Every structure is written in structure tokens, then in C-alpha cells.
Amino acid sequence: MRNVYRIAKTELRMLFCSPIMWVLLLIFVMQASGIFSGLCWRIAHNNEWGDGYFSPGSFGFIMGMWMSTCGSLHFYIPLLTMGLISRELSTGSIKLLYSSPISNAQIVLGKFFSTVMFAVILCVVLLLYVFVAGNIIEAFQWQATLVGLLGIFLLACTYISIGLFVSSLTSYQFVAALGTYLLLALLLAVGGWWQEYDVVRDITYWLSISGRAYTFVAGMICSEDLIYFPAVTVMFLLLTIIRLNSKRQTISALKVFSQYAGVVVGISAIAYFSSRPMLRGYYDATTRKDNTLTQQSQEVMKKLDGELKITGYANLFNTRYRDVAFPYFVQQNRETFRLFERFKPDMKLKMVYYYDSITVDDRVGAAYSFDEICRTMPDKTMRERAEAMAKRYRSPFRIFKSPEELKARGVDLRGERTTNWLLEWKDRKVWLRSYPGEVNHTLPLEREISAALKGLVTKLHKVAIATGHGMRQFSTTLPGSYHDIAIEKDKRNSLINQGFNPVEIDLNTRVADDVDVLIVADMQEPLTETEYASLKEYVDRGGNLIILGEQKRRAIMNPLLEDLLGMRLLDGILVQYRLPGLRPDVFISRARPVAASLSYLLDDLTLSMPSASGLEQTAERGFTYTPLFCSDTIVPELNDRQRENRSYAAWNEMESVDIDAGRLICNPAAGEVAKEYCTVAALSRKVGDKEQRIIVSGDADCLGNEEVTLMRGGNYFFGLAALHYLTNNEMPFDVRRPEAKDVRCHLTMKQYGWINRIFTKFLPLLLLGFAVTI
């Protein structure tokens, strides 16, 4: 070790006397200081002119700097390492080292450790920013931040070893720098090579350096990544030693090649085994455990004893095939289940590529695209069209199964012939879908995956909607029906993708015991005696219920509401003037504060309700009556100019809503009353050993396809919020994490001025002074 120390000391002295090192350090400090100063300005400006709320928190603040540093290291390191050995080769001084009693391993390690000191200096500089951030931000996440810094250091060491190896290959420093850039680009790209071969895919993906440090930056230590950096560093150090041995001694090319191959194969073996899920270890340093499954998801994983199979089926004719299922994206699909694999490392995950026709039962948008493919290739068979599409995607056609091959295997994809995953556990199966309508993230997230997994270990919550008498349905796509919120497969938040089983039932038969929630929406004709008896029996035995009425159906709905629940729809249609261009009969309701105590999804939710009626309680039926949504008279979105000559009162219009005939005016003589109106109410009571929960709405259009698509309020989430309350807050799956504590930053504009001057002016000048002096 003495020789290693002496070589490192000599190299370090030369490094500090090198203008390149100081120029690189100065540029790095100026870049980091600029980013840090900009972040501080935003915080100080918000403290003085905003609400002082700091998001995304301390870790998110410093993580921006870590991401920038990881992205810029590959610019600095090659320029620093390009002369480590190539300089010795070009000047001939390498012969002096060869003639001295120093081994090649000592030469390599000495030069490596000397350059590692530069990485240490970079980390010390970054610690200055961390120290300042930690003293101005409440509840600063020190552990997660330092884990990110560890990742930066390991990444720099790996880059140094790569640069050292390339420097040993040539006597030209410029060529060494360029070669290092090319090798780093190779290591970034290798993760996408040979992805169609299972074992090779795992090795090439492991060898890729792309994104490795970001696991640390996110505040997570994974043993796979912790092994990766030292392993790759050691690999290139060994390759450098072999290279110098081949120059120092007369060794056959075959022996040199075999030594190179032995090192690469040995490291690849380490790669393969360390990347196995059952051999991975994890440490999440974030305070909210952002890189770990929520406790609710972990509870589901504990129940999955035995083998869990997840099979992804990717249809070549799917419109978003390239985005989610191209063979190069296999590992990306694997990352989708990475958090779950941590708690069940023996899960079996594989992809099956195939081609088959797509119908509207699968997905409407994809069906139209498939029809377009057929029109552009009218004279070709299904197989020929698939071959043409595979060629377009540059994908080997041999990996795609035909419909006949899938059928022979017993695979039935009817209704799911796009890009989906089939989850199998014991004798149960559940579908998990992708969401092509979402541009930024088409893959399922923790909530959807956990909901699907819960459907394996317990039964899916059955949500039944009554049919007949002109009532709204799930199965039709009419503007007023509930297709989009219930069974639209492309929608992430539709019931079918959130752990529910939506079905349509006929009230002529008894409502089954396995129905968790029954929906009666916009009944246009009175129920028959048999249907009413079936509904009453369901309510009497404590079944949970949603009733959605319409103001023009009051005469039909009120007898049912009064008899079962002691409620009624008020006379008239609710109106209120709000935004210009929005009809006054498009009524906006806002959730009352008490709603959040029933379901967190109801917190501060707004609803747009065309042609709504108010609700009132008329008789005591043993229910606890809780108004959930009431008329919103605040109208916060109007500015002062828009408020002129506008009414914010809500009233029940009894005469006409013909706005073309003139401005609507509340007329007390006609029975119109301006007051706060309840539009959605919750009722609950104890029936046996369970709590019965019911929601009544004065409008049925609020959940219709048209209103949900217009997005004039939080209507799309209202259905999920209501069902969350009605299923005893079980579904949709709750993946919330504890609230962040580091949301306040004590920094004034005056303090920012000092920080800006210190880091963007004084620190660079101090380094420049050191450089000139040395």
C-alpha cells in the first residue's frame, strides 16, 4: 500500500497543478451555484409574496441539484482522466514505472485513488449546499439527501475507472477523452440490446449505467445498484491492469483476450445473480417511504402466499404498442412491478407478444385504429398485416404468437385484446390494464395494481345498477349513461380498473347478497310492485345504495324517496349565475367540510349538476342525515369585473330557465326561495352488525358521460368518492402517504441576496484565487 500511496500522492500533486482540474472545478461550482441560487430565489419570493408553502419539500429541492450533477459528471470526468496513463505512454515515463519495483496493480490503484480525490472534492462542495438547505428548511431530510450524494460519488468513481481504462489504450489524450465519451455512451445504450432474449436481457440491462444513480438520488439504496457501481469499477480497473500487463510483458493475444473475457464474464455473473429479486435488499431513506409500497399494499402482498403469475399480453395491432410493449420496453414493464417484487420476489413476470383483431368490446379507440390498418391493407391476410406492422416497429416477427397458437394454449383474450396484464394466483384471475389515453403515463400505478391484487385475495366489490324504466345504465355510450365512469377500460379511474365489478341487474328478481352497492338512477317510470318490493327488501336488510334523481322526475322519484328514506326532491330547478357563458341551470355544488370525514376523496370536491333539484328531509326513518354537497355561493373563480351585475344567490327557479327571454330573477311570489340548497346527502343507520350507508343526489347527469367529459367540476372523481364511502372506505385503494413535514422554508429575500453573493460570486472567486496561487 505504500507504493500505492506514493503514486497517488504524486498524481494528486500533479492534479492540483493542472489548469484543467481547476477549470473543471470552477465550471462545476458555477453551474451548481446557479441552480442552487435559482431554487433559493423561488423559495424566498414565495415566502414574501406567496403563502410560504414549500413543495415538493426539502428532498425534492435538493434532488434537483443531484439530478443535474449526475447528468453533467460525464462531461467532466473524461477530461480529467484522459491523461492519467496516456500521458505516461506519450512521454515514455511509463518505462520508468515498469523498471521500478512497482506492480501494475499498484500503478492503476494509485492513479485511481488520486483522481477519486477530485470526486471527494466535488462532494464536499455539494455538502455546502446541503448544509445551507438543511438550516433553512424545516424537517430537512438529511438521510435521503446523503444517500443521493453517495450515489453521485459512486457514479463518479465508476466514470473514473472507465476513463482510466480508456487512457491506457492510447498515447493521445484527446483520443482517450473521446474514447471515454464513446464508452460511456455504450454503457448507456447497452440496456436496450437483445431485449428479446430473457437471460441476455437481464445481463445487458444490468450492465447499463443509465439511471443507476437515480435510485440513490430518489433516496433509496438497493443492493443491486450498490453492487453495480463497485463491480463495474473493479471490472475496468482489472481490465486496465491486464492492459498494462500486456504492454509490460510479452503475452499472446489469445491469453490477453481470455483474461479480458474472464473478467467480463465474472462481473456479468455477479450482475445476473445480484439482480435476482430474492437476493435484493432495500433501504428507503425518505421520511414518507416514497420508494416503498404503502402499508395497505403491503397488507395485500402478505396474503398472496404461493405462486403469483403476471403475464403481459401485447397485441401488435394496438395503437400504443410501441409505447408499452415493444421488446426494448420489457424492462420498463418490469419496473412497473418493481415495488411489488420487493415484497414478493418469487412472482413470475413474463411478456407474450401476439397479433389478433381488435373489436369495440376490447377498446373503442384501438378498434378504430385496427379497422384503419385493415383498410390500408385490404388484400392481405391477418398474418401478412402483422408481418408488415412488425417490420414497421423493427421487431422480429418470430416473437409474435398467432390467435390460433394462443387458443391452443388455452388463452382467452376476448375483451382484452390490446396491451394488458393477466394476474393469476391459485385459481383466480384478474385483468390489469394500460391506459393509452394518458400521454404521460400509460402504465398502471400502485393504486391500480394493488386493487387488482386485492381482487385476487378477496372478491371484487360488486356495484350493480338497476335497469329498465328508462334508468341510466353502464353498457350504453349515450351522453347520460354511466359507461365512462364504470366500464371504460381506457380510463384509469373507471370502476372496472379500481377494484370494482360493475354489473346491470333487473329488480324483478331479488337483489343478490353479494351486491355491495346498488345504484338507482333517473327512474322515468314507476317501479312495478315486484321491483319495488325487491328494492325495499334490499334497503331493509341494510344494503348500501345510491339514488340519483332528476328535477323533471320528481313526481316519480319522490314517493319512493319518502317511503324508503324520508326525503324528497324540492320543487323547481336550481339556478345560479357563475362564469360567463355557463348556463345558470348548470348548478355548481361544493362539498361541505364534513364530507372529508366520510371519505378523503370528497375533500373540497366540486360538482357540476345540470338541471339539479334540491334535497330535504321530510320524515324520520332512523337514518342519520348528513348534507354532503351544497350550493356554492362564494364563486371564487370570478374576478371583480366579472362580479358586476351578477347574482351569487342560488334559488329554485319555478317559472322558466329560458335565458334568451331575459335575465333570470328570483321571484318570491312564484315560490322561489334564495338560500343554501343541499344537492347531495348521505344517510346512515345501524342494521344488525353493520352500518348501512346511502347517498342521494338531486341530479343524475352529474355522472353521465357528457358531464364527465366536459370536466366542469370533479364529477369524474365523485363516483369513486361515493363508492369509497359506501364500501366502508375499502375501495378504491388508498395509497396516500403521511403528509410531508418539510413544507416550510425560512428564507427572506435579504437572506437570499447573501446566499446568492456567497455561492455565485465569492466561492468561484475563492477557487480562482486558490488555482492562481497553487
TrEMBL record:
SUPFAM superfamilies: Class I glutamine amidotransferase-like (SSF52317). GO terms for molecular function: ABC-type transporter activity. Residues 462-551 form the ABC-type uncharacterised transport system domain. The chain crosses the membrane at residues 20-41, 53-77, 112-132, 144-166, 172-191, 227-244, 256-274. InterPro entries: ABC_transp_unknown, Class_I_gatase-like. Pfam families: ABC2_membrane_2, ABC_transp_aux. Keywords: Membrane, Transmembrane, Transmembrane helix. GO terms for cellular component: plasma membrane. This is ABC transporter. It comes from Butyricimonas virosa.
